[in-house]
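SsrA-binding protein (mine drainage metagenome), 159 aa
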Amino acid sequence: MARPTLIAGRIAAENRRARHEYTILETLEAGIMLEGTEVKSLRLGRSNLAEAYAGQQEGELYLFNCYIPEYQAKTFFTHETRRARKLLVHRKELRKLLGAITRDGMTLVPLDIHFNDRGLAKVTLGLAKGKKLHDKRAAEKDRDWKRDKARIMRNKGGD
C-alpha cells in the first residue's frame, strides 16, 4: 500500500466557533502526545475540536474533551476517544499561560490541529477572553457591513 504524501500545514481538525465565541489575544503552537491509532485517525481528518479546551492537570498542560474517533481498520490496539492528551510546551510558556489562566481569568482554546512540515501533529492554542452577547452582535454587524461594502464596490466598478 502506497504511503500518502505529507502536506505541510495540513489541518486535521479546526474549531470554527472559537473565533466567534472568544476574542483571541495570542496564539501559540504546542506539540501533542498521541498514540499511533490517534495519528492515523487524524490523518484521515475525522476529529472534532468543538467542545475541546486546554487546562492544567498536575502542573502540566492537557487537552480535554477532544474527540478523535477510533481508527476504522481493525487493529488490536485502540485508543479512548475523549481522553486527556498532554500538550508539549516550553516551561517558560507554560508558566506564562497558567498565570494568565488563573490570574486574568482567560481561557486556552484549541483553534486547530495540524501537521507540520516534518509530519508531526501540532495544536494551535489561543489565549482567549470570552465575548459577551453584544460583542458577538457587533462583530457580526461589522462583518456584514464589510461584505456589503465589498459587494457595492464590486458592482460600482462593473458599470
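Residues 1-6 have pLDDT under 50 and may be disordered. The two ends are 56 Å apart (CA to CA). ok done for today
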